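Margin note from the TA: students keep mixing up input and output lines. Inputs are the sequences; the output is the structure of the whole complex. Example:
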Amino acid sequence: MAQLDGPYPPGDYQAVVVGSGPGGLQTSYYLHRRGIRHALISSDDAPGGMFRRFPIFQRLITWSKIHAPSDKSTERYEWYDWNSLLADEAELRSLAPSFMDGTSYFPARDEMENQLVTFAERAEVACRYGCTWESTRREDDGHFVLSTTDGEYRAEVLIFATGMAEPWKPTGIDGIEDVPHYVELGPPESYQGRSVFLIGKRNSGFELADGLLPWARQIVLASPRPVRMSVLVHSSAAARARYIQPYEDHVLGGGNAVMDAAIERIERTSEGFEVHAQGTTRPGSHVFEVDHVIAATGFTTPLGDLRSLGMKTFFQDRLPSQTPFWESTTVPGIYFAGTITQGSIGLKKYGHPSGSSAVHGFRYNARVLARHLADTRFGGGPDRPEVAPKDAIDHLLRAATRAPDLWNQQSYLARALERTPDGSFADVGAVPLAHFVDSYESDAIAITVETDADGDIHPAVYIRRGDDVTEHLLDSAHLHDYETKAHREQLTALLGGWI
Amino acid sequence: MDTDEIIDALASFSLFADLTGTDLQAISHTFEEESFAEGQRILRQGFGGTGFYLILQGEAAVVIDGQERTRLSRGDFFGEISILLGEPPSADVTALTPLNCLVLPRDELTGWLATKPSVMLRMLQTEVRRLRASNRWRS
């Protein structure tokens, strides 16, 4: 029996969004802006998603700069604030720093949760809380039916913003099922004077190591792959600087260890655990006798029964395979939002992944997705302001210098100008770069920001003339100011004949 | 594919025929898995910053100036020439089916190969075979 009271009762909608973390809230906000009739449902009882509980040591790794060069009501401020959701209304922007107590560059977990709750209230993003998605089917007319604890929802489009929220452990390690996952960490003081073996050297592993440094007698972090540090590989998806104190301790011989080793098996002993491992970077067998073993091995996407619809996955079956517009590559009509959008790889220039695994990246994906759905499925408005040829160069260089979506989604999102039949340009806004270079259908120019192999950041220009697309890097610049005479001259030379 | 399935696949590839189980496990963690839709380009002719790809599942076409030259499938690799020569790719590689690959960023390939001489040798053998096939094709 369908439950009809409260927001978004079961019934027919154009789209249904599942999840009330930042990805779901941001998506719902922009679907409203585009006039797409949708329902937002969540099994939780309040907004916040993973931030209602994590990170486990209660402080984020993404910054919000309280004292920044730009006013908090401006779009430019998003560059300095990686945690707030986006809004067209100035009063709804930049909520995260308004909840921070000013003692850290990084919000506390509860400060992040508070901004999400407040955003939902002030932006009037309603959600049907306590409504759990149970199963999914597709009808003959192509529409989906989502069965929930409150009844059935029918829609042309489903958008899953359920996060990479389920604890995940790798296969192939005997005994790993007997050790707790990151989410099951005990109180830090319970590790006082104990030895702790952490499986995993990504952010969750280093977060635990950093948090346990004051308590544990010895900490060993191990995984087969050498540590990839954000400051060395120029990627926010790698181990962040905030957590690398345990690595410094290891390098300086402080007694804790960071090892490249493949874990073979974990055995319980009367005292604790024995961990058997084989060195990878440096070959050799190792046996560690420790009090605790914790699997900081990450999370997977709760996909429910979507695989039974033919959904293709990858990343050890943890992420759905997606198009540049975050649609399942094998089940058209099912889209993703939030951190799951990291499954849409993009060009990944020089090996740098997108920022889609975190709020500062995926918030822009949600805005682009809502526009894409409006344009392709539900009727988009004439949202393509004209840019005169004489203004095109400044328009593009201004975007490369100032647009926060290009900086937070480098080589992933681009700002594009489409050439019109009369020789002018239409501003089509932000588009996935992979879509622009592979399947855009008109003559157009796109600009993005790209970090090269040496770590220099450049504006990157892509010019599409018919089926031919060319790539051009403009010069890098101190303080990233590309609105210079030299950059105008470079871009003007590239666009010869069009301006 | 889960970790075990990836390691099983790696063990069946001639490129890794001389490696130990520990080596294969390390590769399964060192390389990132990526997925591409049918029709999607993985390498783009003339575009810089690409990686080294090893096909786990699916089939891809090598296309130069719009003309298909060859096809690649499970166990084949591509992208290495661009990295080793420091030049943008001279061909498009496009997925003909849903395609899953393992990928190593360009700045990690040469260092990784230096630690795995047997892989380097087998890669060289493959390059020589490709060169021979290319010469036959030209003649």
